[in-house]
Amino acid sequence: MTQSSVLLRCYIYTGPSTDVQIDTMEMTMRSLACLLLVLPAITLADRLPVIDVHLHAFAADQQGPPPLAMCTPIVLPAWDPAEPFAAAFMRAFKEPNCEDPVWSPTTDEELLARTIEVMERRNVVGVLSGTPERVAEWREAASNRFLPGLGFEIGGSREYSLETLEQLHGDGRLAVLAEVTNQYVGIEPDDERMEPYWALAERLDIPVGIHIGTGPPGAIYLGSQNYRARMHSPLTLEDVLVRHPKLRVYIMHAGYPMLEDLLALMYAHPQVHVGIGVIVHTQPRPAFYRFLQGITDAGYGNRVMFGSDQMVWPETIERGIAVIEEAPFLSEQQKRDILYDNAARFFRFSEEDIARHHGM
Ligand SMILES: [Zn+2]
Predict the structure, then answer these.
(1) C-alpha 63 – ligand 1 centre gap (Å)
(2) Same domain for 24 and 111?
(3) Distance, CA 134 to ligand 1 centroid (Å)?
(4) What CATH number has the domain bearing residue 131?
(5) Which of 82, 273, 300, 334 has the fewest CB atoms inside 10 Å of its own CB, making it the most exposed?
(6) pTM of the model
(7) Same domain? 21 vs 119
(8) Per-residue pLDDT tens digits for 10-52
(9) Is the omega angle on the peptide bond into residue 101 within 30 degrees of 0, that is, cis?
(10) How many angstroms does the Cα of residue 181 sit away from the middle of ligand 1?
(11) What is the longest distance spanned by two Cα atoms in the chain?
(12) What is the Å distance from ligand 1's center to 346 Cα?
């Protein structure tokens, strides 16, 4: 039963009556009965499916020795370069300056278990980035919740050959080429080294998610020397879109905070979608809401997809969902669009998939 049909029944049951015989006592009893009907419906609303277009299968120590505390929003003191930035950065995760941080699990097993626990609690299915091995391992634990992705970056251990990608795709182990993190090594989307991969994704119709926008604050001083703030601009993607008009691509951090560039790109290229991974919970709400409202006010709410960028803090998934659910400027339909409907359309989920997600 849907929530609205229960509410309708309740209204008929307790609503204004012309029958003067119904006394106060009976109305109270009816209201109580009605409450019992509505409560499970509210729980049902909590179970409406969510698609998270940005999950990572990491080891528990991927971001540093656990446990690490993630504040939502992230709180980082001003940096005095007398101290190495990495030390100041790590201190923020060891001695968090917020009241209710999410503490990361200390073992790989706990990280996987807590991630699945949150996904089951909030009925989340998602795109899982990682090495083929770890993605396979996580999918063994919950194959119905994870679409296989692939962490990809030119120039290092995560640069896979075209043959490998084609093979993984053929084996059903690569549904989405994401997360492409070339920005960390200073490689722009239209770099010639990336070109064959765009062509492959277009030919095989593999959706691509690419990191454009925020990484960790101060990423340049954490070892990513070629990372540049100017590469947050979504316009860096434009020539790729022109060369590959059939490509399905989403910008994994929405090019935050370069809103004007993003709106220009979305206007000129109506196929482009954005994910709101990490920014949804790391940025202070007024700043994130201003950015998101900038997109929805411009009429592009139908191309925004929820993403958490869950790394080693599983509960950030539900904190991110809450940020959308509590956004005062979004209608209920816009919230559902962002949490599920837009991604279901973008990934071309079948009616059977969508029915299955609703029944999970
Ligand atoms: Zn990213």
Answers:
(1) 13
(2) no
(3) 18
(4) 3.20.20.140
(5) 82
(6) 0.88
(7) no
(8) 443 444 444 444 455 555 555 555 555 545 444 555 689 999 9
(9) no
(10) 6
(11) 81
(12) 19
